[in-house]
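P.,

For your records, the input lines for the assembly:
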Amino acid sequence: MDLAIKLIVFLPLVAAAIAGLFCRVIGARPAQVVTCAALLIAAALSVFVFVKIGFGTEKLFVVKLFSWIDSGTLDISWALRVDTLTAVMLIVVTGVSSMVHIYSIGYMEEDPSIPRFMAYLSLFTFFMLMLVTADNLVQLFFGWEGVGLASYLLIGFWYDKPSANAAAMKAFIVNRVGDFGFALGIFAVWMLSGSVGFEEIFGKAPQMAQMRIQFLGMDLPALETACLLLFVGAMGKSAQLGLHTWLPDAMEGPTPVSALIHAATMVTAGVFMVCRLSPLFELAPTASMVVTLVGAATAFFAATVGLTQFDIKRVVAYSTCSQLGYMFFACGVGGYSAAMFHLTTHAFFKALLFLGSGSVIHCLHHEQDMRLMGGVREKAPQTFILMWVGTLALSGIGIPFILGNGLGFAGFYSKDIMLEAAFGVHTTVGMIAFWLGVIAAFMTAFYSTRLMFMTFYGKYRGDHHTWDHAHESPIVMMIPLYVLGIGAAFSGLVGYDWFVGHDWKAFWGNSLAVKATEEVLHHAHEVPLWVKLLPLVLALSGIALSYYYYVVRTDLPDRTIKAFPRLHALFYNKWYFDELYDAVFVKPSLALGRFFWKKGDAATIDGLGPDNVAARAQDMAGMLMRFQSGYLYHYAFVMLVGVAGLVTYFMLSAR
Amino acid sequence: MIVGLENWALARPELFLAAATALLLIYGVVRGEIATAFVSVATAVALLVTAALLFLPYREGTAFASLFIADRLTATMKALVLVGSAVAILMSRAYFEQAKAWRFEYPLVVALATLGMMLMISANDLMALYVGLELQSLALYVIAAFQRDSVRSTEAGVKYFVLGSVASGMLLFGSSLIYGFCGGTAFVQISGALADGRSAEIGVIIGLVFVVAGLAFKVSAVPFHMWTPDVYEGAPTPVTALFAVAPKIAAMSLLVSVLMGPFKPLFAQWQQIIVVASVFSMALGAFAALRQQNIKRLMAYSSIGNVGYVLLGVASGTEKGIQAVVFYLAIYMVMTLGVFATILMMKRRNIMVEEVSDLAGLARSQPMMAFGMLIFMFSLAGIPPLAGFWGKLYIFMAAVEAKLFVPAGLGVLASVVASYYYLRIVKVMYFDEPAEAIDRPSFGVNRVVALVAAFLIAIFSLVPQPLSLIAEAAAKGLFQ
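Structure tokens returned:
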């Protein structure tokens, strides 16, 4: 078991090192083989570990590697901690990652730097696995920063594209804001509990809830503050409202990257972190309330933006943002298991949607604008069907009441349980989250099917040259789509009982906050019938409306826009967040930087320092040159003045 | 007064050189211009033999009724001067042949100048000092103007002559004042008179100021340096090489023996003069050269700066300081001869060039030549571990031990500024777009000199101890 865990984590690192360091020697094909093989082995081992822990009796494995930092009372070691929560993440990460690796063989076929790409992907996977297997906050932070680095490298993979570089920097810098909060949160936890190891922290959680900290004259509840700071970190990584601006831009990276990092795994790290720290969050009601509100607001906000976008990947990106909002409000109300359930199903169907979009993009020679698509189902029938699977899973479509829990696509189970959890807690915040979530569910169904109708239905609107060369993607890209399609279709059905149904206790063990989960799941299953049905009804009406707008009456979208121009502009321009940040943060920072550079460094330090000294030296040289006139009497005069000066000096000093 | 001849053998080297010069002069006159090559080589050999005679056997003491003194310091300094002059003579042939001024008088006049320098170094009386100095100076005025048909050369000769006369006048005036106050011209009499309490008398101090001014002119210390750039630039290049080496060393040696001998009781006074001259020389040598385009002129300022460092060693007035002075002068001679040998090789289409910009891209056309120049420049700039660094280090250490903190600090700063123009030459040679290529230097004396100089610098850099031991022995002679 220990060996399996070690292999899962370190095989991707070894593969990344081989592909990255020796890429010039071994070439593209071996790099692909090595990385894909490593990931497939890791994925197989993950299934083994998952089954053993999830359905076994032994719920926790800790593999000690070695001591890292041992200074005073601070003792941090490298250790791989695998419980059910981690095992679920292992499945998600290695599963999606291995599929993306294989898909990349086809998608990146014509790229000149294949080994570098594969190495980055594997390196990302290693960091992500390090993150989910962390045994303490510092190790978690290591993985956290590592995935940030890999994300930066992959967004900017096409480094000759200025927009890609800008997006990479944006992602990195916005995440710095979150990471700052996260780091402060870690410091706070260490200050309160004297430890960063999860086991010790959770043991001291009840005491911590009683403590208070003083900061700048304010008397703050300690645990609430720490949790809020940690949540700021989660907001950055998971692109929650306020720190979400980097995620849509990150679509500049290659599509497999979007699928792996910016849909299935890295962006869910925030959710994972909150679930991992659920024993702390369940004792911090105010912080949890903030989590709920931010999550619900994000779910709603991102959905509105998604309604209006035309770039196929951006629609999916805003959808991701929105779905992450769902997961957070589920966490906020205590439905950690529901959040993890949605995280898992979402990983499958969102990766499917991204890779499917990639397949469409590949088919149409890197065309991403949906206005220039249409009728693609003729050219890519398999992608078409699989995209429908993903879309229905995202919209949460299913048939209730049969087979006990109903029969439907993955999102049907996971989204509903989150909404039910939010309703079930019967608090104001819960109700806000529920209603925003329900409205967002309607919009989700609308925009995701809008994507389908604009892309696959109607007539092709792009240029004919592209259309003539359009083709279904190669088999190496279709296999991952099928695998993910199966996950998107059935993961909800299979997982329901274990994740949130009556077997949840046996499944999760102690890896999530037990008390809160029990309470929330209990209430969630007791909600009135209309609550259970409402999301489905709204989703179906969203699909119907979308069909009417984009297939039956294609003039309606424009007329609607004309009817509500302001609202459309607001949504289309992403609520002007980028413009706001540009004016409030970016421009002043640049101005400040320019000031320090031009006025501070160049004018003051260089100007008075090196440059000034050099210029004065040159002036002096010029002066001395003029002094050297060439006239004899000048020279003799200088000599006499010298003697006279010395004599005068001595005569004066002799007195 | 009867001249005592009892110790005349102490002056054997000088007598030999005088006789050899006279004989070669007669030979030259008889044979005419065809004898030039022979006379030139023979003079150089005679100078080297003279140097050998200093130590085979080595003797010390005074002679000619105490007008003449010989000890370790004088012997060492004379050896440096003789070698410098000999090399300068050998280096000059190609240049003068091309300038159509290749005459047998040239090496002989240099030999006479050298004889004057030897007498200066050995002077033990103000009268002997003046006679030696004038013999040297008159000879040097002649060779500065040796290229008679060149305006620049004659201008240099006249300038040097006029200003040199002013300096000589000052020296004589100072001597007469001192004679008046001390009642004698012999160094022993002066120190004896000053030792019994008359040191504070203003007349003596004024006399000292004038004497020091006269000597400072010869070493071209600020503010008596004004002639240097013009003369260095105008004089024929081999003459400049000689000027930069032999008279500097001789005059510096004389300055040391005058200040540390008869005027030792006035140490507090002359230290102030020397420190001022030193600091200003270092500063001027550093700043004024920054914009120079002509290498000879640049070397003139460089020599002023180097004299500043040597004076700092003199100003410390300690045995360590004098040791540093000897050490520095030896290294300075090697570096300077190397640089001038390289300058003498700078020809384009068989015409001598002497601008810094002419060196552009030298590293590509003549890598060996460029590398040699690089060593000299790095050494002059005082980059460790090259010999020039050790020289400066000893000087500064001596100054710091003598509590001359401020002048030592200023010296370090000046050497930073000066390193700019040394390194600029390296930059021009290695990084600038090549100018029209310099001719491939023919195999000759200059190439050998440059090679040997570079080699010696390498040796001194790695093993400075032997040279430092010689300097130590020389300095000890002064303090017995």
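Two observations worth noting. The radius of gyration of chain A is 30 Å. The longest helix of chain A spans residues 162-193.

Regards
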